[in-house]
Amino acid sequence: MATLSPGFRGRSRAAEPNLPPGQYVAHDFPVLTAGPTPRVPEERWEFTISTETGAKHTWTWDDLRKLPAETPTVDLHCVTKWSKFGTSWKGVSLDTFFEDVESAADYAMAHSYGGYTTNLPLEDLLDGQAWLVYEYDGEPLHPEHGGPVRLLVPHLYLWKSAKWVRGIELLLEDEPGFWEAAGYHSYGDPWREQRYQGD
User: Fold this and answer.
1) Pairing, β 82-93 against β 24-25
2) How far apart are CA 165 and CA 70, in angstroms?
C-alpha cells in the first residue's frame, strides 16, 4: 500500500487548466519519429492537394513563401503524454491552399516525404485550425521537427501534424494512416484522451 504524506493531494488540474488529462508539461521539445529523418532541400520541396477526381494543385517552396503568412502561437499535445505550451510558428493557413480547390470529400490523408501518412477529417484542416509551417520560434524549421515544412493541427495529438509534409489527398471515405493502421485512434482528440482505437 502506498504511503502519502499528510496533506498530499496530487497535482492540481486547476493550476494548469490548459493541460489535457493524462498529460505533463514539457519544457524542451522532444523529437519522436517513426523512421529516419528525410532531408528535403527547399528547392526540391513541393506540396500537392489531390482531389477525389484526380485534380492536382501544386505549390513549390517559392510559391509557399509568396503566400500570406500567419504566426500562430499554440499548445502542442503528444500522444506520449507530453504537452508544450505557447509554441510559436510561422506558416500559411490551409484555408489559403483550399481557396480554389473544388471537392466533395469529407476526409483527407496527409502524405510526407519518407512515406508517413495520417488521416484527418477535412473540416479539421479548415476554418483557421491548421497551417503549413516553415519556421519555429523565429528560425527555419529544423528537419528533426519536420522541416522544411510540416503540417500543424494543434487541436489534435501531434502525430496528426505530419512532419515533412508533401501533400494532402482528399477522400470520400476515411482510411487509416501509418499510426492509425497500427492501432492509434482515428481522430486523436487530446481532451478526450483518444490515444488508441476504442478510447
Assistant:
1) parallel
2) 18
| Whether the bond into 121 is cis, omega within 30 of 0 | no
3-state secondary structure the chain: CCCCCCCCCCCCHHHCCCCCCCCEECCCCCCCCCCCCCCCCHHHCEEEEECCCCCEEEEEHHHHHHCCCECCEEEEECCCCEEEEEEEEEEEEHHHHCCCCCCCCCEEEEEECCCCEEEEEHHHHCCCCCEEEEEECCEECCHHHCCCCEEECCCCCHHHCCCCEEEEEEECCCCCCHHHHCCECCCCCHHHCCCECCC
pTM of the prediction?
Answer: 0.90
Residue with cell 493531494: 9
- Beta-sheet pairing, 82-93 with 73-77: antiparallel
Residue 136 sits at the vertex; the CA angle it makes with 22 and 62, to the nearest 5 degrees, is 135
* Whether 194 contacts 188, CB under 8 Å: yes
52-97 confidence digits (pLDDT tens): 999 999 999 999 999 999 999 999 999 999 999 999 999 999 999 9
